[in-house]
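Q: How do we represent a protein-ligand complex in a form that can be generated token by token?
A: Start from the inputs.
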Amino acid sequence: MHVLIINGSPRVKQYSNTDKILEKFTEGLTENGTTYEQYEISDKKQWDDIRNAYYANSNILIALPLYVECIPGLLMEFLETLTPKNDGTKISYLLQSGFAEGVQLRCGEEYLKKLTAYLGCEYGGTLVKGDNFSIRFFEGDMRDRVTGQYTEMGREYALNGGFDTDKCKAFTGYEVFPLHMRIMLGTIFATLGRKMFTKIARNWGCTKPIGYRPYK
Ligand SMILES: Cc1cc2nc3c(=O)[nH]c(=O)nc-3n(C[C@H](O)[C@H](O)[C@H](O)COP(=O)(O)O)c2cc1C
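Then emit the structure tokens for the protein with flavin mononucleotide bound:
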């Protein structure tokens, strides 16, 4: 099998969490001979090539971050330049986000089903997973702990040609956190989390407090 992979993030490849996820995903994907080609929506110079690849390939994987509950505007701008295929092409999606609960991504997932039909393609399922804010903050082993889980999902995709399996559905984790976890996470965010984000902001050159509200 050969797969066309489109990274739908507007962030440049170097800073894209989706790209770091794809690095691990494609390790599992290619273990048994599946090949792929990957493009970035963030690089408009690639758009002609992506369009040609969309018409030439019958297995397409769009990997995208959730931006304001749905798909990034730049990806939408690109998709609007495509015409429906109606030739049995299958599109699957890797949908990832910052917030951790599965319920946060369900609206986006529903839209992706509609999008597949608009493009005249078959729906290969969506791999839904949040809790990815931290990828950009970490490096080395700490980053691998978050992204490494996707290698197994690459194997699953290669085996089944999509994400419509129980293993992929279970990959989402909690749909909604139970109450005790919400209380615990709230406490951590207000204390340790605040300290960590303050440090990260300082390292990125921020000179104002993280709670600064200039328009209030
Ligand atoms: C403008 C913007 C909007 C976002 N909206 C959401 C959102 O609605 N829900 C969510 O869980 N995460 C949201 N996020 C977090 C991203 O989905 C998350 O950080 C993702 O890993 C970014 O991937 P990327 O670096 O490849 O773009 C948003 C991030 C940005 C920058």
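The mean pLDDT is 96. The longest strand covers residues 122-129.
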